[in-house]
């Protein structure tokens, strides 16, 4: 097998087309350079140069080999720097899980921030509900989550990214829109309610039942995704409690009404990561995200 030293010798001769000048460029004498090229030709089984009294000319096979030799040398020279950058986390891949609702507003800003601050880190995106994100983080299927509380602080590091109001989505023209004041829980007790699933959207389910008494007979649908809920509201199937960021969806046939709650901004979204992660790119991304402002 040929060596990188042989490749450097070959490239020097190919570019100079003169063994003497190539040897001087490599800080060596001509005889060992000639022997190096002869050995390289034997090892790869082709003639790389035509030599006669008039000089040196590269063969067709030699010209093709020159392209690959330069590529191999460039890779060899860049490999140590690449390894060091990977070790520092300045290159690599971060896999981010996100809820559908978190994509409205927070995710684009987070991706833009990473692109500016750590541009050589690749980002892979996975849409998941919070429960799926927790499982993915524990098994290291993803590196970061945009998820809802609660979390186990022994397993996960977390940082609050957004705190926002809960509003009421109603079909356009609904009588509640005529009240011209923030809604109170008692305004909604008789309304058909599009509710969150107790298993796949537990965070929002618990949040809603903590705000307003939910009577089973009032629930017309139970689903897990905010987008589905808003589509059902637009179809006049009922009313629903959604985060204020849902207004960014721009779905026709829906109005969003303010709601009196305590606290005023009960909906939280957190950045979440496994404490035992060994991915250097994750730690570089976390350092970059320290300067991402909290939306409050």
From TrEMBL:
<dbReference type="GO" id="GO:0003700">
    <property type="term" value="F:DNA-binding transcription factor activity"/>
</dbReference>
<dbReference type="InterPro" id="IPR000847">
    <property type="entry name" value="LysR_HTH_N"/>
</dbReference>
<dbReference type="InterPro" id="IPR036388">
    <property type="entry name" value="WH-like_DNA-bd_sf"/>
</dbReference>
<comment type="similarity">
    <text>Belongs to the LysR transcriptional regulatory family.</text>
</comment>
<feature type="domain" description="HTH lysR-type">
    <location>
        <begin position="1"/>
        <end position="59"/>
    </location>
</feature>
<keyword id="KW-0238">DNA-binding</keyword>
<dbReference type="GO" id="GO:0003677">
    <property type="term" value="F:DNA binding"/>
</dbReference>
<keyword id="KW-0804">Transcription</keyword>
<dbReference type="Pfam" id="PF00126">
    <property type="entry name" value="HTH_1"/>
</dbReference>
<dbReference type="InterPro" id="IPR036390">
    <property type="entry name" value="WH_DNA-bd_sf"/>
</dbReference>
<keyword id="KW-0805">Transcription regulation</keyword>
<dbReference type="Pfam" id="PF03466">
    <property type="entry name" value="LysR_substrate"/>
</dbReference>
<dbReference type="GO" id="GO:0032993">
    <property type="term" value="C:protein-DNA complex"/>
</dbReference>
<dbReference type="InterPro" id="IPR005119">
    <property type="entry name" value="LysR_subst-bd"/>
</dbReference>
<protein>
    <submittedName>
        <fullName>LysR family transcriptional regulator</fullName>
    </submittedName>
</protein>
